[in-house]
Amino acid sequence: MLLKIRGKLDSIFVTILLGILIAAFAIWGVGTGGGAVGGSNVAKVGDKEVSAQRFATMVNNQAQQYQAQMGGQMTLNQIIHGFGLIQQILQQQTTMAAFDNETSSLGMRASDSHVAEELISIPAFLLPDGSFSEQMLEQTMRSTGMTRNELLEEIRAGIARQQLVDSLTAYSAVSKDMVNTLQVVQGERRRANMITIKASEIVDIPEADEETLRSYYEANKSNYMTPVRRSYRYLLVTPDQFADKVEISDEDIQTAYDSNIGDWQKPELRNIQQAIFPTAEEAQAFADAVNAGADYATEAAQRTEFTIDELDLGDNTYDDLAVDFDAATADAVFAVAEGTITEPLETLAGYVVYKVTSITPGTERSLEDVRDDVVTLLKAERSVDLMFDFIPELEDALAEDGTLAPVAEKLSLNLATVSAVDRNGRDANGTQVITQQVEATIHAAAFAAEVGLEPEITDLNPVDNTQGIYLVEVMNEMQPEQQIYEDVSVAVRQAWEREQRQLKAGEFADLAVERLRANENPEDVAADLGGTSFDAKNVTRQPDGNSGLAANIRSLIFTIGEGKVSSERSADGDGYVVVKVNEIVPGDPATQAAAVASLRQQLINEQTNTVLSQYQAYLLAQNRPEINNALIEQLFPRDQE
């Protein structure tokens, strides 16, 4: 229910703050070419500029939303760079600027009266009775950091952009006849008999002699090469390596406990329900009925627009309610007993009656209870700090020596060596020597690097630089070599047998095709040939979520005609699938109204996206965005902590 209330606010501000066109253009990229724009703007398209303040606010707001969703596990800077938010917001803003520039050049500008009409119709600013609320407008502007003039100009620009988009997409070439014709094909359903013949289950194959196997080896020599192998060295630096150097005093422990008190002391939770009424009289009548014995949820569902499920706001702390609503609401909810209701409260959304359905008492753990946990937390944090302090020393040593051996000796680091290992982490004997996740990360980097290239400091985790760093140095690469028959004779025999089973499965599939064409019973055919028969009923062109039919077999079913038989190799390569189409039922637009409407909207959307994409490309070609990369780097430096 809370989402329903908040949704009104969110939806309009997605439209206003991100622009009417962002949904359409989110998948289109904007390059960072063109000239450089200076001053306090991060970008310029024609005469329209993207201010640094506005850009930074949008990037930070988006990052804060992600951070809250992830429980604060990543810093804002890690989210901004790891999630590519700078480029995303830049694309959005330059696209909007391109369209704003075009609307200005065309003289398209919304009148003051049009802006006023739009403003007073925004759901986020309306009371339950539909009247405009100045108080809700002011509250929203404070929460978004916008001034009244900025909001009005956003609305004005949004109206002009929408008018431009409407003029481009008003005409639709998607006719009713076109949609109906396509639905006949798109909505078609088929029924087919299928026989699967698995090669792996075939046992009756000839025994290969030595001459046959050697001939097979000679014909497939390229399959029996040693893999590319590399030898490399690496240095790994993690916070754990500095844990022994961390010194922690009792004062440090007390400070850390106080700073993280929320981890040790859990506030009381109250599970609540919420019923909203447009008038005080209706709210009081509801409260009287509940106090007289009526069921809260049933009564609320009957008297309001909300369902029983939407009444539930879940568990909330006092602070949750104070932030989401106000202190008066929090006071009222936390003043009543479990199973009882509050008096009607006047709010921006209307008159509200809350019920406390359950109470979870808060918990408090003393410093002595959690002392070991606090020490562990402090050690982890300070180990990270010591690691970061060490990195400049490592950089200096690397710049001086250029290779890892002298760096390791100078800084007393462990230099690990991996010798003659293939891309999958196996040595020449086939033993898996790369077994840990950290090793796998470094191993992948070793196979991506150039031989002899000077090592670089690299984060173990690209989105969390607190996990550690590594440097890898590729010493040599061993090219593939031909393996002699004696070393691979077992693998040769296995490959030859697999091929024979597959050939036999193909022969059985051909026999099954002939017999089904002769209208023999599919179950009898399958039983004779060692296959499995089943009916595929009501097969559609597009798979649904429960379909286990392989794409190539579905394609075969819709390729051959009614009464026809054909076969296709199994999607997993293990044998063949034989298909006989028994029935074709064309799509019926008259009885598939929802599908027709969906198809029509899909075609319109594709047409609209094509038109807008081409027009956007035209606008950005006419006025290529000028990006102030230096200013963006100042706003969001990569090494910022």
UniProtKB/TrEMBL annotation:
Segments crossing the lipid bilayer: 12-31
Membrane topology annotation: Single-pass type II membrane protein
Chief localization: membrane
UniProt keyword Zinc-finger, yes or no: no
Subcellular location per the Swiss-Prot or TrEMBL entry: Cell inner membrane
Family in the record: Belongs to the PpiD chaperone family.
Protein name as annotated: Parvulin-like PPIase
UniProt organism field: Kordiimonas sediminis
